[in-house]
Amino acid sequence: MDLTILWFWIIAFMFIGYFVLDGFDFGVGMSLPFLGKDDTDRRVLINTIGPVWDLNETWVIVAGASLFAAFPEWYATMFSGFYLALVLILVALIVRGVSFEYRHQRPESEWKKWFDGMIIVGSAVPALLWGVAFANIVRGVPLNANHDYIGSFFDLLNPYALLGGVTTLLLFFVHGAVFVSLKTEGDIRVRASKLAARAGIVTIVVAATFLVWTTFAYGTVASAIFAALAAAALIASFLANLRGAERLAFGLMAGTIGLTVLTLFASLFPDVMPASNDPANSLTVANAASSAYTLGVMSWTALIGMPVILLYQGWTYWVFRKRIGRAHIEVAVH
Fold it and tell me: How far apart are the two ends of the chain, measured CA to CA in Å?
């Protein structure tokens, strides 16, 4: 396989890993006002992701660094054209991370309430804007002959891109609610399952609309297959959650998100940044890639490093696999 094509799909894999793993982190954060009846409930929710949220977030760093090294033209165009949106995502991630570390530093309820709000906003903003960004990449943006973005920020807020943002927001929200039901016990587990069911109905409608739009407007045969599988996995996850099969529901939600990302990348290929104003200005896997030598070195590095990363992350999840509940929080307080 050509190394440029290989690295296109490696980048896709990294973003799948990021959206699946940090996606349920975002969902847990967004669920605070719905599932956190009191401070103990909110501590339970935060503790479900406490050991893993920062590890999950490193996937976007690896994805961004790999994008920079493998496709520098793509990286430059995307990060300059989507500068404001990506800055907002970065600020939101910083705010969320700071809140996790500082909310417990003082006992006052107002202090905790302030940081809880920052967690909610810091989870919702990236969940929305990542979908907007990737939908715009698939749709295409105006580029000049030098592959520079020549549109405005408001050009990115088109109906298709906004629908993509709402889709990722809802997918991550349901993913997080299912994760809470998988990781907790008692009343909060039951309420999380019910929340996932209620939100799941809306998510199915919105996600199906986005996938159909993507397939008919920008899709290929491969992307249509991935879109159909994503829709089937989402419906199956919804039904599994209704039956109380939490592990299956969570796995199927992860599959839904992964297949949705594959749908977008398959719709994009062989472009990496289509030009909506003139196809001749589009960035492709060929004209956006680094040299063959660079991609070769990166391939050997990935071959050695990626299995180690996956094994370490799998081990981390195994260590922190047990459920938690209010009783664990109360014991910790005393």
Answer: 59
pLDDT band at 294 (very low <50, low <70, confident <90, very high): very high
Region 97-114: mean pLDDT is 87
Alpha-carbon gap, residue 255 to 40, rounded angstroms = 31
Structure tokens at 59: 């996937």
Q: Is residue 16 a contact partner of residue 260, using CB atoms and an 8 Å limit? A: no
What span, in angstroms and rounded, lies between the C-alpha atoms of 24 and 144?
38
* 115 in Cβ contact with 138 (< 8 Å): no
Q: Using an 8 Å Cβ cutoff, are 173 and 27 in contact?
A: yes
Q: Is the pLDDT of residue 8 over 90?
A: yes
| Mean pLDDT on 297-304 | 93
DSSP, res 144:
-
* CB contact set of 87 (below 8 Å; sequence gap of 6+): none
Verify cis geometry, omega within 30 degrees of 0, for the bond prior to 51: no
Please determine, for residue 333, whether its predicted confidence score (pLDDT) is greater than 50.
no
**Rounded (10°) CA dihedral 128, 233, 52, 88:** -10
The top-level CATH class assigned to 3-333 is mainly alpha
1 band by pLDDT with thresholds 50, 70 and 90: low
